Amino acid sequence: MSRRTGKPSYLSSRSDSRRQRITRLAAAGAGLVVAASMLGGGIGYGIGRPDATEASIADLRRAEAKRDLQQIADLTALARRTSDQISPVLAALGAGRTTGPAPDPGQARQWQQAVRAAAEPFANPPSGTTATNVARGGLRSAVDQAAVAVDTYALAANSPSADRKALTDLAARQATLAATTWSVAATQLDQVNIDAGHGHQHVYLDTGKDSGALTPDQEAEGTGG
Q: What torsion, rounded to 10 degrees, do the Cα atoms 122, 128, 133, 135 define?
């Protein structure tokens, strides 16, 4: 009876070498998968994490938002003070078109001083957001127009009597334009306050209801923010 034999040694060696290569390839593949996963995670983290420039921009935006909130509060307070200063002047000029007395030089000088004082705080405005700058610019323009109306009245007061009526009427028209411009700016300021969370802030001039200016809405002060 013949003796059983196993595989030839050269076949066994070849088979063992193949298994070793497969094992090494599998290990290498697994290593590549792990490395790719780690690399992908690192890239994702690097992409998701804000760099120094993005962080600086975010800090600047937060600082700008905080600064603008204070500017809005300051501008609203200034608008209230200015309204108290120029409302009586514009109301008197508007009424003077048809029913007012002859222009008085002394009164003209007083009004010029009052409007000049009202304009001073707007001389060097800070830089804010576009919406706040628009409100501030509108208020300043209204004060400038009020100054022109008062100067026209002063001119009427120092002109021959034949020219006074026309100049007084012109001053009244300019006063109406100033009040209308203010009302537009006041509406913008109201919206800026709402957007900032301060609620409605109605800072309109008290110049009568026939000026054609915008008027405040019916919402209560401080609501809607």
A: -80
Encode 102-132: b = buried (16+ Cβ within 10 Å), e = exposed.
ebeeebbeebbebbeebbebbeeeeebbebb
Residue 185 in tokens: 């700016």
Q: How far apart are CA 177 and CA 114, in angstroms?
A: 18
Dmax (CA) for the chain in angstroms is: 153
State the Cα–Cα distance between residues 222 and 70, nearest whole angstrom. Answer: 16
What does residue 185 show for φ and ψ, rounded to 5 degrees? -65, -40
**Cα four-point dihedral sign 178, 121, 80, 85:** negative
Instruction: Tell me the three state secondary structure of residue 177.
Output: helix
Look up residue 76 and give its two tokens: 């609203």
Burial class (CB in 10 A: 0-12, 13-18, 19+), 223: exposed
Average pLDDT along the chain, 225 residues, taken 10 residues at a time: 45 53 56 54 55 69 75 97 96 73 90 97 92 97 98 96 93 95 97 95 86 85 87
Spatial CA neighbour of 150 closest among 209, 214, 92, 211? 92
Q: For residues 83 and 63, what is the distance between their CA atoms, to the nearest angstrom?
A: 30
By the 8 A CB rule, do 149 and 93 touch? Answer: yes
Contact at 8 Å (CB) between 200 and 219?
yes
Q: What is the distance between the alpha carbons of residues 110 and 104, in angstroms, rounded to a whole number? A: 10
pTM above 0.90, yes or no: no
First to last CA, the chain: 106
